[in-house]
Amino acid sequence: MKNYRILTHTLLPSRLCEFSELTDLYGTLNIAITTQTDNEISIKFDDYLFYSKQDEGDALKTLKELKKFDLLGNTLIRADGSTLLRWFSRETFSIRNSRVMQHYIILTNNDIINVLSLSEPEISEVKKGAVAPPL
Fold first, then answer.
1. What digits encode the pLDDT tens for the residues 69-121?
2. N or C, where is the chain less crowded by C-beta within 10 Å?
């Protein structure tokens, strides 16, 4: 991974959250995280191409890289020029150009989620007792 950018949003807390749920329905990827104050945040990708979820113990190289750039503790990071973007582009015989796709890293207390998408995610709060945001 080459260039990193922390993505900020008023709903994203300054501390890591707990991973709650990942749903992949009808071409939309929704990742739910729970804050320290039990608020649930939805990070929704309408045009994702790829995702992976790992326990932090299985992503030691990624954590080392993020630590080197002082990024640990941030919930949402964009990684431009990443090896994952290049790998995915090669897998598609360059039908998907790595310069068009975006690589997002979502860090939670115990998990790392990588998402390749064509656009930025939509971030919203899920009201207590409410159903997840419509797809």
1. 999 999 999 999 999 999 999 998 888 877 789 999 999 999 999 999 999 99
2. C
Taking CA atoms, 11 is separated from 14, 34, 37, 87, 89, in Å, by 10, 11, 12, 32, 32
Strand extents, DSSP E, 14-69: 18-25, 28-34, 40-45, 48-55
Distance of CA 81 to the CA centre of its chain: 16
Domain count, the chain: 1
135 within some domain: no
Residue 38 lies in a domain: yes
pTM: predicted TM-score of the whole model, two decimal places: 0.90
Q: Classify residue 51: in a domain, yes or no.
A: yes
Say how many CA atoms lie within 13 Å of 32 toward its Cβ: 16
Q: Residue 100 falls within a domain, yes or no?
A: yes
